[in-house]
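Key result, reporting period 2: structure in, sequence out.
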């Protein structure tokens, strides 16, 4: 599927769009939160790594809209504990997690299971597009694999970095304006 870089960029873009003028932690911290949260679904490879079969759990339930809803619930609870607006925390959590699912859905998938279990837990069916936008990530130690993965990361960056940069610029600019107004 896609690279962690592509997922992080998509998370920053969608998280910034989802929260608009509402800060969760602070403008810069929110960007880091969005990037980190967007990469979390891929940690499902760790149980497989420990069992000797990296693909055993990868692209399972964590790559679904159901998992995005669970993330939204967890984020709402965190937001509530922090005294923030739980709805914005939930919305950000859902959108950022869903950004991972969307990017993987739009990525060429050459390894089983093909696609993402989009509607888990209501359906175990995997979905993928035939009109992919992003290149797959290969696994291996050859130079051909290395250059393929570099090409995939560059392509993701060309597409997603402008969106993430716009989101970051919007949040940081708004924070700078608010700071100037406070000082005036």
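The corresponding designed sequence is given below.
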């Amino acid at each position: 599927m896609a690279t962690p870089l592509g997922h992080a960029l998509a998370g920053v873009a969608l998280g910034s769009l989802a929260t608009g003028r509402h800060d969760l932690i602070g403008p810069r911290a929110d960007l880091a939160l969005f990037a980190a949260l967007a990469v979390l679904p891929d940690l499902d490879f760790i149980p497989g790594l420990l069992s000797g079969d990296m693909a055993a759990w990868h692209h399972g339930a964590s790559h679904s809209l159901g998992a995005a809803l669970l993330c939204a619930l967890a984020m709402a609870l965190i937001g509530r504990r922090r005294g923030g607006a739980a709805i914005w925390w939930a919305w950000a959590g859902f959108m950022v997690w869903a950004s991972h699912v969307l990017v993987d859905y739009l990525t060429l998938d050459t390894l089983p299971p093909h696609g993402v279990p989009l509607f888990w837990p209501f359906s175990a069916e995997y979905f993928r597009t035939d009109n992919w936008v992003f290149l797959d990530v290969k696994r291996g130690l050859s130079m051909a694999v290395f250059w393929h993965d570099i090409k995939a990361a560059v392509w993701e960056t060309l597409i997603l970095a402008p969106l993430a940069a716009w989101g970051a610029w919007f949040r940081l600019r708004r924070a700078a304006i608010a700071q100037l107004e406070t000082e005036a």
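The helical segments are 4-19, 27-39, 45-51, 65-81, 86-105, 143-183. The two ends are 49 Å apart (CA to CA). This case is discussed further under Risks and Mitigation.
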